Amino acid sequence: MANKMTKRIVVAGGAGYIGSHVCVELLTGGASALVIDNFSNAHPEALNRIRELASGDLEFLECDLADPAQKDTIIGAVKNFRPDGAVHLAGLKAVGESVEQPARYYRVNLGAALTLIEALEAADAKKLVFSSSATVYGDRNQSPVDESGLTGATNPYGRTKLFIEDIAKDIARSDDEWRVVNLRYFNPVGAHPSGRIGEDPNDIPNNLFPFIAQVAVGRRDKLQIFGDDYSTPDGTGVRDYIHVVDLARGHAAALNYLTTQKTGGAVDINLGTGKGFSVLEAVAAFKRASNRDIPYEIAPRRDGDIAEIYANADRAEKLLGWRAEKTLENMCADHWRWQSQNPDGYKA
Ligand code: UDP
Predict the structure, then answer these.
(1) Degrees to nearest 5, angle at CA 275 with 314 and 219
(2) 224 lines ligand 1 (CB under 6 A)
(3) Neighbour count for residue 170 (Cβ, 10 Å)
(4) What is the homologous superfamily of the domain 2-192+242-272+311-324 according to CATH?
(5) Which atom, in ligand 1's list, is nearest to the CA of 95?
(6) Residues 91, 148: Cα–Cα separation, whole Å
(7) Ligand 1 neighbour 136 (Cβ under 6 A)
């Protein structure tokens, strides 16, 4: 796979949680990367760590893709880099915040995507892998859900993902040189097995794994489990957790797929394991991996949550030759290694 990989890739949001793992995967596979990031939910130290884990050519542009005043600089830098394509992971991603600040979410997420698309057009590098989300399936599907599932987001964050998928599809329809993969991630967790890069939330974590990890390491007293009365085997919510290194490999496979495509177009592809685990199962697995107590209490359901969602990941296997390989145990062990070795994230 590595030697066939597209060689020069813009990674928008490359200093973030998923972006940093994508960079390591691309550099290790022999590609060069231009990271564009404004560190809005990322830390400069992540770039040092990427360089530590993977030799190879990593360039960096500190810019805000959503700021119209920086657009010309960005387009110039992208053209200069002479990319073959891009992975777009730059955006705001807190569901609750998006409900409170919808206009900001639409402006930032859509603006960043459009500037990147314009830059790729200007550089004549019309290949895009977009970081979408299983959140686009909303609450209207039975699991396992495949890519023909009904879409309909339940909050502004999710709608930005759907809009950008649709924008990318319109662009691909308008010009058959464009090739797009919308990767619909299920629940990315875990960290690079070295423990050097991982998720470092700015604030109180919204997501389950970073919260559990902060409880295990003693930064927070206890976990709240949002509801134990769902119609699932143990009453807690079921999700398809996927190791971030598997996810990063999925991006490399998607870029590879785009370079081998003879015809243009856009395709949606789920990245998940196809297996669901409950909150209680995740807590138990993390407890075993960390050998720490994880106190929890049952709290009311969280607005907008659904009982269960997990992927049908057949299309990724068929089109990309990709399948998730890591287990829930790997996810917990690696997440814990990162958290225990970096209790305050990158700040220390
Ligand atoms: N969850 C929880 N406590 C938390 C965070 C999440 O019980 O502090 C549950 C949530 O209700 C869902 C699962 O853990 O069933 C995964 O939530 P997360 O926010 O990580 O991802 P989502 O699937 O909601 O995007």
Answers:
(1) 130
(2) yes
(3) 11
(4) NAD(P)-binding Rossmann-like Domain (3.40.50.720)
(5) 25
(6) 25
(7) no
Q: For residue 305, which of 135, 159, 160, 165 has the smallest C-alpha distance? A: 135
Please give the distance, rounded to the nearest whole angstrom, from the Cα atom of residue 19 to the centre of ligand 1.
21
Residue owning tokens 């691309």: 26
Cβ(237) to ligand 1 under 6 A? yes
Counted residue by residue, the chain has a size of 348
Given the residues 105, 137, 157, 185, the one annotated as active site: 157
What is the spatial distance between Cα 342 and Cα 348, in angstroms, rounded to a whole number?
Answer: 8
Q: Name the band, by pLDDT with cuts 50, 70 and 90, for residue 218.
A: very high
- Scanning the structure block, which residue is given the tokens 């500037």? 115
Compute the half-sphere exposure of residue 174: CA atoms within 13 Å on the CB side of its CA.
9
How many helices (H) and strands (E) the chain has is answered by 11, 14
Closest ligand 1 atom, CA of 236?
A: 15
What value does the mean pLDDT take over residues 173-186? 97
Q: Mean pLDDT in the chain?
A: 96
Asked if residue 309 has its Cβ within 6 Å of ligand 1, the reply is: no
Question: What pLDDT shows up at residue 2?
Answer: 43
* Token digits of residue 171: 């662009």
157 as an active site residue: the answer is yes
Query: For residue 6, what pLDDT is reported?
Result: 55
Q: Whole-prediction pTM value?
A: 0.97
Any ligand 1 atom below 6 A from CB of 213: no
User: In whole angstroms, what is the distance from residue 253 CA to residue 315 CA?
Assistant: 12
Q: How far is the CA of 331 from the centre of ligand 1 (A)?
A: 16
Whose alpha carbon is nearest atom 18 of ligand 1?
Answer: 207
Tokens of 340: 């225990």
- Ligand 1 atom closest to the Cα of residue 302 is 11
Residue found by looking up tokens 């970081």 in the block: 131
